Amino acid sequence: MLQNRRIVVGVCGGIASYKAIDLVSKLQQAGALVDVILTEHAEEFIQPLTFSTMSHRPVYNDLWEPSGQAAEHHIALAEAADLLMIVPATAQTLAKLAHGMVDNMLTAVALATRAPILLAPAMYKEMYTHPATQANLALLRERGVTVVEPEVGRLASGAIGPGRLPDTPTLLGAIATVLGRRGDLAGRRVIVTAGGTHEPIDPVRYIGNRSSGKMGYSLAEEARDRGAHVILVTGPVALPDPYGVEVQPVETALQMRDAVHRFIADADVLIMSAAVADFRPATQATQKIKKRSSGAQGRGQSEEGEFSIELVQNPDILGELAQILNAPPAQKTTCQRLVRVGFAAETEHLVAHAQTKLQQKQLDFLVANDVSRSDSGFGTETNKVLLLYADGRIEDLPLMSKASVAAEIWDRVVPLLSVQEQGDGSE
After folding, report:
1. I want to staple 400 with a disulfide (CB 3.0 to 4.6 A). Which of 21, 74, 404, 413 is the partner?
2. Is residue 290 situated within a structural domain?
3. Where is the DNA/pantothenate metabolism flavoprotein C-terminal domain (predicted)?
């Protein structure tokens, strides 16, 4: 997504300018060509050498230098940019941009470029909420500028409130979202499920699994970066919500099933990467189940102190969708055009079990991985998967990062969308 993209980062004079150093570093590491522009007041906080060291490129700061080359530079930067991001965007710079004022290199580039502009405001809370600042932001949004809302938190003054610059992952997510608006999933609505489910035994205990949700979150972020509207239905995980993704948290398999059915009607793709529990307790205790003294019998507990839980089977979400597809035409819904991808996490007989799931659930393709491997599956940063197709083909992908696996999966989904439309007779 960022490889060889020309990103211009404008840095204004605010205490949050130090966070722009990490942003520039991460962009450069991701393969972007980063040009940094500092305002005069930004140099009161951070020197140009810091940014040139991180970007491996010159830093621009003076529109009025005597050689006149700055005039050429500001036009060249404006024309070459794929994106202009201003971070932090101060109240003064927002006012200048809103009213077309040009008095430094940054505002000159901003007025000259036709690239998307992304603003990350950061300032004292009263300055941010002031009607003048809000009016300027509203005017800029009307002109197509994207604004990354500041977070509520502790500010440099010690006060608590809105105005805190988001951390680098959020800023990178915003950049990827803007750059991906014309991607190969633009205009598509996709559902990704992620994480495991927790099936309550009592208010403090549950039946669950080891799924971290990393694969599903990578799939959601990759789809976002390609321009899709992404709904991420996620079980309990220890991961931050991805920027630009509609997140629907659930806990149980039944809640996940309900969420999928709620969003499915106008979706183009469903990728079920969640590790949904196959079983749940038949009943849930309303109070914490206590250990009993010897000789006493409690709920599901024998005289010997053994404890048992009666389990019932959870619904098969993809299996239910297959039944809908096989229903008489009058009973079918819009999900008959849905591209459906499933996952199979196995510890033995990987191909045989995966082929059975693929056939039973009538998927477009299935992603299978051996979770007994130390480098693949639950909690790891990498994954080693097989792709099994409805026509019998099996594609063996090498070990790679989960983000790379997500990209490979979407590369195979995109052509299926065209096939589905042709089969449906759509234009």
Report:
1. 404
2. no
3. 185-414
